[in-house]
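Think of the structure tokens as a kind of shorthand, similar to the way a musician reads notation: each symbol stands for something richer, in this case the local conformation of the backbone. In the example below we present two proteins back to back. Begin with the first one, reading the sequence and then the tokens, and try to describe in your own words what changes along the chain.
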Amino acid sequence: MLSLLLAGVPLAAAAGDDEWPRAVPAAAGLNPAPLEAMDAAVRKGDFKQITSILVARDGKLVFESYYDADGEAGLRNTRSVTKSVTGMLVGIAIGQGKLAGVSAPVFAFFPEKRPVRHPDPRKDKITVEDLLTMSSLLECDDQNQYSRGNEESMYLLEDWTQFALDLPIRGFPDWVPKPQDSPHGRSFSYCTAGPTLLGPLLEKASGEKVEQFAARTLFGPLGITRLKWQHTPAGVAMTGGGLGLRSRDLLKLGQLYLDQGVWRGKRILSAEWVRQSMAPHAEVDENTEYGYFWWIKNFTQDGKTYRAVMMSGSGGNKVVVMPEQRLVAVITTTNFQAKMPHAISEKLMSDYLFKALQGASGT
């Protein structure tokens, strides 16, 4: 596949939902040399266990290469990339009027779970948007092994919904900025229990199982038929991670957002939902902001700044959307045990992908 795309052999666009129109990199305004060098570096092992890389520009597939035995048909467990898919389902539910909006209070959906531990009136004010932006007041931090809400503690229990609802309210010592003193008025804390809670919430709002709602409203219209959900011990689809999708289908999800919620002429998400999802709502650090389960980061390469909005999962798995460059890229990996795996994927982007964006003529 790679040799065809780079050698300039014309490939006709097929009509099936699974097929992409294709173009050679130079025809899409990309410099093929960095892409060829990237492919060689990955095959050499410079980026450890990269399993696939796909790049599309202006809706045309210009680079596709696989580095494992599963190849094109492989279902990639891209871990927390699933969270961004959950955000899409929330947006669809809101667009269909099944969910009142991002201001809908979360705890009101679960009267059968009361009384909850650590009762606090502030819990009743936690909204869907608080979960979408990883900024609820629940004491939940996957990056802190001592956090009551650390995802590893959740996995030990049977009822993950009750786990989330029972969490105490977070405290803010002097050295931690309070929400009102933070950019966008939110204090970011990465919490898998939040998007996991949105699964049963979506089922209550839609009246369907997550898998059915997703197949009918998102995956079906995108022509995505091969996938694998993981499930909580209670049998609900795991909306916080673990969804298996093919790399080409991950690329479709990125293209859907690049095209403002439209796939091949059919609107799946509202343009406003896409805009809000990719807009900053919380600050992760001085270089990174967070939308509705999308990471927003600026990269500098050769004196130029590139804005990337990303679905991101453990191991450095990424679906990268670059609206200004009209480009979508997918990087899948199994670098789950590697040191700083996201830095590995981002180095690949900086060293090769952004250089390719300088164009076939190098300008």
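Once you have a description of the first chain, move to the second and do the same.
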Amino acid sequence: MTEEKALSNGETLAALQELIDVVAKLRSPDGGCPWDLAQTPQTLTPYVIEEAYEVVDAIKTGNKEAIAEELGDLLLQVVLQAQIASEYGQFSLQEVAKGISQKLIRRHPHVFGDVSVNSVDEVRQNWEQIKAAEKGESSAQNQKLSEKLSRYGRTLPPLTAAMKISQKAAAVGFEWENIDGVWAKFHEELQEFQQALAEETPERQQAELGDLLFAVIQLARWHNLDPSEGLQGTNQRFVQRLQKMEAVVNRPLSDYSLDELEALWQQAKAQLAKE
């Protein structure tokens, strides 16, 4: 290792140690922050998800300063979770870092061992086989479909999980013969949702809403569309139109009538379409 590289590594480790010390101070009963002291792994879970999405958004923008900042926010969640766990004698940040390093070494025998690979597909196959062995599971080829789909449902965002589950189910033949069957299912679920809203309990309404959304995702899959990207685009367009509306008014939107808001909405929509 060159002297320059060693210096860089030392500075990196020093910066990480400073972050660890700051988080420990925030969690200290003696002069710490009341908000940080009140947090648990469970209450912090929404922030882990939020920060991960903000990292993705920053990467999409390509803004290096934003990416660095959002990665820092995500790193804070890792350090904070490890700090709380260490306070309860569960595990430390050192164990977290050591564990992921050992996992990477085990799952890359073509880099750290004597295994030879000829393609990215072989790397992926080796990874899945080693992963299954570590968890005491059957190999990816022999694992039951329900086991795979259950994992997707537990670990992925709902829209992504629904798409993944339906793709894997379709791959083994659990699929409609044509798009007409998918549309029929959508209309069936829409009718059941409407009926539930009129007659059923909130629990049944929630269940039927889920069925309807799953049917919409099947339509997206059949047309090679990404429902997450589609919804994200709609969210962005909605906010952009509100921004245009607020740019031309001189009082809060809540002061306008519904007809006035609709006119402003259509004006904003037309303006954005020209840009």
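Compare your description with these statements about the second chain. The mean pLDDT is 93.
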